[in-house]
Prior knowledge:
Elements lengths: L14 E5 L3 E4 L2 E4 L7 E2 L9 E2 L1 E10 L13 E3 L4 E4 L10 E3 L6 E3 L9 E5 L15 E4 L11 E3 L1 H8 L7 E4 L3
Parallel strand pairs: 1-14, 4-5, 6-7, 12-13
Antiparallel strand pairs: 1-2, 2-3, 6-11, 6-14, 8-9, 8-10, 11-12
Amino acid sequence: MSLVTTAAVRGRVGDLIVAPTGSLRWGSASYRCALGRGGVRTDKREGDGATPSGRFALRRVLYRPDRLAPPRSSLPVAPLVPEDGWCDDPADARYNQPVKLPYPGRHERLWRDDGLYDVIVVIGHNDDPIIPGHGSAVFVHVAGAGYPPTDGCVALVRDDLLELLGAVSTQDFLRIEVP
Length: 179
């Protein structure tokens, strides 16, 4: 649950600061978040379960249209479909990029039953340029009950994530700090 209202963050431009202790701060707003089971690392590698440290652009929002209306955001917003996936195979030419399923390379399904990907913020991690093996599918998404660790993503409860999406812009960045 957020500690402040949307009005306290609306119109603010800057970094959303993620502390390795599991909190996200933006201006005077503070939110609890889950991070990767491998902690926060400066040398993120595929499959290590770590959340990468660094400063990442907020690229776009994907959402499950069967579970919620399009999130209000100035970021580009697009609905997911059951065939959406994300390639996580470092040997594949589509590594760390969206793919349509079925897909022959190793991939992650974005249309999940557990609700964690009901809302996804695609961030600019390892995408310009893409370096095979340096991590894929690192998103901001919905946290599981009790904030269990992620496989490397940043996760917030759905209402907090939607609140932030209503206030951020493409000029804002996600900054994940090192321990």
